[in-house]
Every structure is written in C-alpha cells, then in structure tokens.
Amino acid sequence: MTESGAPSYPFLDLGLVNAPLAAELEAAALRVIRSGRFIGGPEVEAFERELSAGCGASTAIGVSNGLDALRLIFKALVILGRLKPGDEVIVPANTYIASVLAVTDAGLTPVFADPSLSTLNLDAAGLLKAMTPRTRAVLTVHLYGRAAWDSEMEEIAREHNLIVVEDNAQAIGATDPRGVTTGAIGHAAAFSFYPTKNIGALGDAGAVTLRESDPELERTIRALANYGSHKRYVNEFQGYNCRLDPLQAAMLRVKLPMLPQENERRNTLARVYLENITNPAIILPTLPESGTHVWHQFVIRTVEPAMRDALRSYLDSRGVGTDIHYPTPPHRQPCYAPAYGHLHLPVADLLAASVLSLPVSSCTTPEDARAISAILNDFKASEK
Ligand SMILES: *Cc1c(COP(=O)(O)O)cnc(C)c1O
C-alpha cells in the first residue's frame, strides 16, 4: 500500500520473489556448507549437466557472471585463432553495455546494428546492413526474453561463415521460430543468473553453453576461468578467476526446475497487458509469430518519446513501479562515445528515449496487471 492507502505495484522485490523458496534454498545452502567443498565440485558439475540438458546444448560451463561468460567466449575464440584482433563483431545497438564490453575486451571491433522496431532485436535486414568484408562474428542478444534468430539469419551466418555467439542473459527457456532453444542456437552462448533475471542466483553467477561438443573451446574457456590453468601451478594462458561458486550453483539447482512455470507465469502477465492496454498513446510489444517469448521485460513505448518520462511519473504517482531498459545506448556511453558516438543509429536512439518496462516479476499477479493496464488507459497524453 502507498501512503495514501492505494495499492502499490512494485517493479521488483527480490525478497518477495525468493521468499516462497526460502526452505529449499536454506536446505541447499546447508548442504554446501556441510560438504566442505566451496570451489568447483559436484554442485557445479550437476548444475552444468542440468543447464545443458535443459537448453539442448552439448556443454555448459558454470562461470562467475554474464559479462565474464561473454568475455571468456570471445577471449577463447581469439586465443584459438578463430577470431583475430580487430575482427568485426556485429552487435545490436540497443543492448545492455555488457555485450559490447566483452567484444572490446577481447580486442575485437564492435559494429553496431540498429534493431528492428517490431521485434526490438537484431533481424536479418539489420545483420545484412552491418556486414562488411571484415565481419567475422555476430553477437545476437535475445533482449527482453525474445529469441533474436531465425532461419534467414542462420542462412546469412552460414553463407558468410560467421561465428554466432548468443547473449542469453534475458531469454533462458525461449525458443526461436525454428523451435531451437536459446543457448543452443549459436556456436556459444552466455547466460547471466544475476538476481533479477528469470532464473536468478543469490548473488552473481553465469554460464557458457556450447551447442555442439567442442573440446578445444571448452578446454580453453575452463582454463581461462581458472587463471589460464588446467593443471595446478601450470599456466597455459594469462587467465582470470571467473568460476561459479558451488553455493550459487546449489541455489540455481533449486530454481532451474521452476523455469517452465516461471516463464508461463510471465506469459500470462504479458497476455493480460496485451489484451487490456488500449491507450493509443502507448505502443505495445509484438508477439513472435512462432517460437516462445519469456518476457524478461515487458517493454512498452510512448508514441511521443517526450511523453515517456511523464508516463513514468504518472505511473509512480499511482503506485506502479517501472524501469527503463536502457536509457543510454552503449555507443553513447562515456566509455564508447569518443569512438562510436558519431554513429547514426536512429532506432536505438528512439528506443532509449521511449521505452518503459512494466512489472512482470512474481510480485505481480494477473489481477495487478489488469489494474496496471486500467491505470495506463487512464493516462492522458496531455498530462504532465
Ligand atoms: C544482465 C545482462 C548481462 C550481464 O550479466 P551479469 O551477470 O550482470 O554480468 C549481459 N547482457 C545482457 C543483455 C544482460 O541483460
């Protein structure tokens, strides 16, 4: 309840999200505490098997977080000579900064592709437009929970011999129009289990999956995540410490089996919003014609970009929590603007100015989503 006694609709409350699982999480934590095994070991190995089986990948490697998962993939591809410093990697211009950080960290060149206004993701047209003779890879980002791949993009990647990497931080459990599950679409995929994701750890956690068995790539990524070492005190590469904690693996093993029901719950909320929001000042997200969306975020736009902030404060005054994913595209961030700020990426700029994310966490019920829709329908575009 708000101070005025009106109901309030939090955007996300991680305490509430995890409360129903408290007993199971505590039991799993106790299991790890009593095991005496705090780095690697059976919890991490079991989680890796469960994750790869769940998405239809051949291999999963537990790592420290989503950014490290991406960094390890690109760094390993460079070490193995499959990519060379300076090679171009296409990346959607409206992604979260981590996607781009991983590309530049490996000495590769990001080429920003403007996303599609209908899917808010990279599509075949955007991919083709961003291609140059130096393009060697594409980092597709399944933003907001929608798979950003299809047979047309697969055809382009195959024809041009591109390495396909997925940023699957937001779309665990989604399928592309061909029915392929995210994490088994590209050659390698990065997962984040940051606490706010559809499956969230109780801290930082992530994973890499490989669609097909690739012992050389797997071995290099595992070594890089462990100081560049396979064998104690023998360092083959200048590596990092990017391992997944057994404690977080145990938390994730409690949550992973709930993924289908979690994604179904999000789909129910999305349907309620799609059926009930009728305000002509608001543009709703589109549903994929085939494949499944997992609604990590339910992102609306204001027809007038300048109205977005007014809509956000209006919703706040009615007790509806919202967020913006993301207010500034990576190429305009201070760390990249000197090199890329001049680029003309009108769709990414339009999205940054006009997107607004509505609540879809387990704190929100379908009744709440109906009430939030009614509040949105009462918004007058003239209100300031
Ligand atoms: C969350 C996120 C990441 C980074 O994951 P961390 O675990 O927070 O490092 C990368 N890409 C996208 C699209 C994300 O949403």
Overview in brief:
The protein is of the alpha/beta class. Helix content is 38%, strand content 14%. The chain has helices at 14-18, 22-35, 42-55, 66-79, 97-105, 124-130, 151-159, 215-224, 246-255, 259-276, 308-317, 337-340, 346-354, 366-377, and strands at residues 59-63, 88-92, 109-113, 135-141, 163-167, 188-192, 206-210, 229-231, 234-235, 282-283, 298-302, 355-358.
SSE map:
Blueprint: H1 14-18, H2 22-35, H3 42-55, E1 59-63, H4 66-79, E2 88-92, H5 97-105, E3 109-113, H6 124-130, E4 135-141, H7 151-159, E5 163-167, E6 188-192, E7 206-210, H8 215-224, E8 229-231, E9 234-235, H9 246-255, H10 259-276, E10 282-283, E11 298-302, H11 308-317, H12 337-340, H13 346-354, E12 355-358, H14 366-377
Helix pairs in contact: 2-9, 3-9, 4-5, 4-8, 10-14
Could you describe the 3D structure shown?
The protein is α/β, with parallel strands linked by helices and 384 residues long. Helix content is 38%, strand content 14%. The chain has a seven-stranded mixed sheet with strand order 1-7-6-5-4-2-3, sandwiched between helices. Strands 10-11-12 form a three-stranded antiparallel sheet. Strands 8-9 form a two-stranded antiparallel ribbon. A hairpin with a 2-residue loop joins β8 (229-231) and β9 (234-235). It binds pyridoxal-5'-phosphate. Pyridoxal-5'-phosphate binds at residues 65-67, 95-96, 98-99, 141, 167, 169-170, 192, 194, 204, 206.
Quick tags:
seven-stranded mixed sheet, 14% strand, 14 helices, 384 residues, alpha/beta, 12 strands, three-stranded antiparallel sheet, binds pyridoxal-5'-phosphate
